[in-house]
Amino acid sequence: MTAPLEQILTPLPLPGGPPLPCRILPGPMDGVTEGAFLRAMSRRGWVSAWVTPFLRISTGVPRKARLQDWLRPFQSTGLPVIAQLMGISATKIAATAERLAELGVRGIDLNCACPSPTVIGHGGGGARLKTPEWLGEAVAAVRQACAPLPVSLKIRTGFASATELPAILRVVKDAAPDLLTIHFRTVKEMYAPVPDGLERLREARSLLPEQLLFGSGDLFTPDDALRMLEVAKVDGLAPARGLLRNPALIPAILQILRGQPSPVPNLRDKLEFLHDLACPDGLKSKTRNGFVLRMTRNLFGEESALFRELSRRSLLRESWEYLGELLTEL
Q1: How many domains would you assign to the chain?
Q2: pTM for this one?
Q3: In this model, does residue 282 exceed pLDDT 70?
Q4: Do 129 and 155 meet the contact criterion of CB atoms below 8 Å apart?
């Protein structure tokens, strides 16, 4: 499956429907990939599909009405939606996947990578890597429940050590998910620096030469993306935290791959993006502006005058009004 760099620019064929427009998928981020972020990114064409943050399946299978409400913000963007599920019961996950298939998702992704201590404590996410055979059982159960939709799998390079990777990938090879995404850290490493991350992905590529493989981990710039593609020979990318530093990262990577200058958002671009993020549901909204402040810090820096001004405005509505004033003055 190893592909030349230019193949990253081609659509991604998956069973059960039309190909995805792009081989760079935004990695889901809990507390980020929702609401105004979905709208702002989709409106600008900075993404071409969405992968939802995980829906945890624990005590029972969610009712279809609840799943419909959960999907609505993603599907309202008009882009293909891959629903990510997490849990410890392959049977319950499969039953949920069946209902999601009826609601029009483009695929099901199984999260076996989340390093959250709370998630791990309940046996979900990255804890599933402790029993690799479960991966095969889950992929088979979900595939049977929602065929012909694609079933993808997200993992890390091990739970406690990257030496676990070959044993995990032997199971993955037999399970043959339609797409495998590997974050190059182990679960225990959380988000700590990993000097040999790309080498781990290269090992995964060599062990699974025919598997459709996406890479994830420390994709903050187009240069990071090029290095991962060149070193690990992955078939696609799944940047996540890099989108917080540069929301236009995906089109920037695509432009570099086309041999064209990478677009750099100017002041108006950044302010308009923040203004869209701050747009309140109503003028009486009491929602606080924490996420807008976080994005302002990423885009302008904590020492910037804009960050200081928005810090004085605790409500989302107040930030939206102030950013609107700045845009009017430009």
Answers
A1: 2
A2: 0.94
A3: no
A4: yes
